[in-house]
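User: Hey, my collaborator sent me this sequence without any context and asked if I could get a structure. I don't really work with proteins. Can you help?
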Amino acid sequence: MALFKRMAVLGTAFFALAPIASAKASEARNTGLASWYQLPGRTACGPRHNPEAMTAAHRNLPCGTKIRVTNLSNGRSAVVTVIDRGPFVRGRIVDVSRGAARHIGLIQRGVGRVQIARL
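Assistant: No problem. I've predicted the 3D structure and written it out in structure-token form, which is a compact way to encode the shape of the chain:
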């Protein structure tokens, strides 16, 4: 009987935690639109925004998280640090600084299809 209870508890825990694991996995690698932005002053995470630094804004990832942003039209990528919240434009998954946008070839078009991967 004790074994049955133990198995029931483990089974319940597995099914309760499975959605959390899949949410983290989908958040770890995502494809969508990115844009670049320039902001005067402080970011949501505290530091002053430096447009030439390799930084980004993301809605959910914790401040300080490193992500690789890959421009899918040319294959160029950059590792950036999340220091702000956003983007707040529907359909976009990340905003990158001007320096990061220049590095991945996003400056001219302003918006492009990217893949982000949490490092």
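In plain terms: Residues 69 and 87 are 14 Å apart (CA to CA). You can pass these tokens on to your collaborator as they are.
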